[in-house]
Amino acid sequence: MKTIVKFSLKTYGKLLAFFLSLLGFSAIQFSCTKYGSPCNTVRPQITGSVVSENNVPIHGIRAVLKDDYQGYDTAYTAKNGGFFVQYPHNICKEDAQNLHVKLQDVDGNENGSYGDMEIPVSSESVQNLGIIKMSPKE
Q1: What is the pLDDT of residue 62?
Q2: SS (H, E, C) the chain
Q3: Which of 15, 27, 91, 112 is found 20 to 30 A from 97 (Cα to Cα)?
Q4: Which CATH homologous superfamily contains domain 41-133?
Q5: Low-confidence residues in the chain, pLDDT < 50
Q6: Which pLDDT belongs to residue 81?
Q7: Where are the domains of the chain?
């Protein structure tokens, strides 16, 4: 007696997916830092305004957005003291990132002489640090 096994198209799809997964193929999904796991991504953007202790805007202050390993984006404050830096890569919201903005007076005594600052920031998509007061170098 001859037995005929009939498979539906849905069953063929499941079998094909099973055998392809054995070979290392998976459904194409957008993944972030973990292979094969989807995530919601953000590209952190940090803004702020740098002023002196007398609330006078300071231009020419270098702002560098860094993580634990290297600096990624560098900007200089404008005449109103404002700056904008952006992380160059998408990161998963779920992944903790240790980001910080390093502020440095690199123009010497031209706009006054100020000490360096390092401000920890979160990896939210957009973050405004508000007004940042820099102290004079001693």
Answers
A1: 93
A2: CCCCCCCCHHHHHHHHHHHHHHCCCCCCCCECCCCCCECCEECCEEEEEEECCCCCECCCEEEEEECCCCEEEEEECCCCCEEEEECCCCEECCCCCCEEEEEEECCCCECECECCEEEEECCCCEEEEEEEECCECC
A3: 27
A4: Immunoglobulins (2.60.40.10)
A5: 26-33
A6: 92
A7: 41-133
